[in-house]
């Protein structure tokens, strides 16, 4: 299909879709309206289970089963990325050269690293009380580790980040979520129902029943998943090169599946 | 005028979605296409948060707010937006991994040059 033809097709389809979307928008409840039956009931349920952060209550209590699916998507995506970004037969690993880092960058990165790591853990731990939770805090904690790459070099990052434990941690955290759900089942309630633990004192760390446990499991899973994902991409960028590329580069056009450099 | 302000956030969501679709259709670079898909996804965040908004309301977090003292926005759609962000991030990661492999195997990331099938 020629680019011009394709543009016409997109214009026609886009115009139709735009018309339908505008018609749908005009029929939606008005923006800022006061009628939110689902939200009101969610707030009520959250308060009855002593969860100050209503969003955490929705995610890890009322919709805990959906979060299990969400976690599985994350797990499957990490698995897929690890398979896609593996070292293939016609590639080998080059030892990354230590790069010069300017001193302010190094100093700032190493100063912020522990603060960022602690912030991530804080956000995970306070998920049931204040905005945040496992997903957000896990990303912050995993990102904090990568400040080492900015501040020092790739080998320093690899020393604090042996991949195997993080891969195992990802799987362990995912099973911890499942086990918490099954524990509720064994205790004579429904799968992932928040009936296992006492609801505790409102607005303290030990409140909201199983929400902190699920939060911790998700926090660990997300942190490990982000570390493993970024490691896959960073390995591709820094370490993995084609055969023969590190020494003199020789092109071998006869071989399929070979990177072609212009 | 009031009708416009009542539907404007929804229209913004629709516009962002269509802008992403246009980018996807005319993309000459797979990494750009993955970015456009993220733009499409960003439209759903706008839509979800617009659906949950309530005039004069605050965040649905009661750590420093007495329950019932102020209206709060809908927490259900906020949790949905959270799910949306997570799924969007994983999809982006998986697609970028695919782009890395395409670039290696075919030496190009232009979708128009990827018409041939190769091992």
UniProtKB/TrEMBL annotation, chain B:
It is a multi-pass membrane protein. It is found in: Cell membrane. GO terms for cellular component: plasma membrane. It holds the Pfam family Oxidored_q2. The keyword Cell membrane applies. Keywords: Cell membrane, Membrane, Transmembrane, Transmembrane helix. The chain crosses the membrane at residues 6-25, 30-53, 79-100. InterPro entries: CPA3_antiporter_subunitC, NUOK/Mnh_C1-like. Belongs to the CPA3 antiporters (TC 2.A.63) subunit C family. PANTHER family: ANTIPORTER SUBUNIT MNHC2-RELATED. This is Dehydrogenase. It comes from Streptomyces tendae.
